[in-house]
Fold this sequence. Notes:
The complex is a heterodimer. In chain A, about 75% of the residues lie in helices and about 0% in strands. Chain A has 11 helices and no strands. In chain A, about 35% of the residues are buried. Helix content of chain B is about 35%, strand content about 25%. A 6-stranded mixed sheet of chain B has the order 6-7-8-3-9-10, with helices on both faces. In chain B, a hairpin with a 2-residue loop joins β1 and β2. The N terminus of chain B is likely disordered. The interface between A and B is medium-sized, with 21 and 26 residues.
Amino acid sequence: xxxxxxxxxxxxxxxxxxxxxxxxxxLLAVLAITFSALVYDLVSNGLSRIxxxxxxxxxxxxxxxxxxxxxxxxxxxxxxxxxxxxxxxxIGAGIYxxxxxxxxxxxxxxxxxxxxxxxxxxxxxxxxxxxxxVQKFGFGASILTAGLxxxxxxxxxxxxxxxxxxxxxPNTIREAALALGTTKWQMIWDHTLPYSMGGILTGxxxxxxxxxxxxxxxxxxxxxxxxxxxxxxxxxxxxxFISFQWLKDPFTVLPIQMFxxxxxxxxxxxxxxxxxxxxLVIVTIxxxxxxxxxxxxxxxxxxx
Amino acid sequence: xxxxxxxxxNKELRLEVKNFNFYYGQVxxxxxxxxxxxxxxxxxxxxxxxCGKSTLLxxxxxxxxxYPGNRYEGEMILYPEKLNIVSPKVDPLEVRMKIxxxxxxxxxxxxxxxxxxxxxxxxxxxxxxxxxxxxxxxSLENVGLWNExxxxxxxxxxxxxxxxxxxxxxxxxxxxxxxxxxxxEPTSALDPIATAKIEELxxxxxxxxxxxxxxxxxxxAARVSDYTAFMYMGELIEFGETKNIFTRPSKKLxxxxxxxxxx
Lengths: 304, 263
């Protein structure tokens, strides 16, 4: 009697497991199909359009002559500014909150605010940047403004991932270092930071791949959609050989270029848009691959 | 005083704990502790869980300063410098440079074996590579690890067994020529063979360095220490030569603990 009951119970549990597994697999298949359809669509529409002249031409009113040179350079310049601002500030803030800040009411409020900021719609950051950087500070619709806006947008992501990476380091390691007579900073520089580098880098790349696809805040600050020139070169032939003029230049970025082409009535421009989309997807996927590689590289070295 | 009688013939002092009190916030964790620790001897701190033995040990290299709300009162004077190591005027870093610590769980850095031992020298500003290599070798020899690791000094310390890791941590603590090494239950995470090796090591090391060891294992205290302090509820109940404490304790409570009536 008892034995029969057990067998029935086991069968029931196994059936439940089977149902759960089937549902999971179906959902996974839906995701995979959606993503492949998206990529297939982009590839079939855009791949034939990607060639050397597409990458090295300025936009044009003739679809077949148009290219994404200014958008690529713009994206690169804006991402450069974003990296320079967001990475040091984000890591610094993460370290401070995790290693130095006392656990009190004020730091709790700061922590909650940072988590909330990560969820604020990006166009709101654009509005803030329009009021603050463009109008109040007079930076205009420039690369500098865009870099500032995007770095503020991705800062919460970098801060949160930095903190999570630092938190995985066991406290016994901190005590080991401090007991030898290190200052807190020596402990952080020699131990906390190197051991959490994998997680921090992953966070940075996730943040940057979000930033590179952002459109709304940049349109809000007034980024141009049609640019037929490059920003000033950062290297000059005369002393001091370095110029920061490019920071003040107008720009466009890949997603804005894509948006512009997609909103035109002519079919040929839609092909250009698909090609640009493909370039963006390839850039983002490569960044994610780099992130995964770095993470596994750093994880291999350190096992707790 | 009874405690002072324990130190026979006025031998060289290393650490004098005088009327020492410790507070975790409002909690009075250590009460009026008096203790004399002789140079190059091993002192065991024993007592039931929560008696304050680890708290006393962690006071000796100011580990309590890492967490807010902790407060020291009284004196712990380190000889021959006559430095009151628990005074707020004394920088905890200075204390930790003189008094090394070995923890309950082996906690090597996820770096190479060499870097682990050399790290203490590095933060003391020693740059001479030959000197560092020499010190690393000597420390590893002292803990009996040199022959086991000499061909893999550049491999990760995390590849070592638990017992080897703990001996590496001892080598790391030893490399900087500390005046005292404090051990916080160093064998509680180890198997019996690794434990025996660590105990043997403590017996050898005390020829060169003063040792304070917290243990919950009374046989271990009897095997490795010259003096034993029995603590209970934050107070030092009895302190004396280990052989006396274990054969004819003068306090009833000590006797009950040693014979296993409680704790």
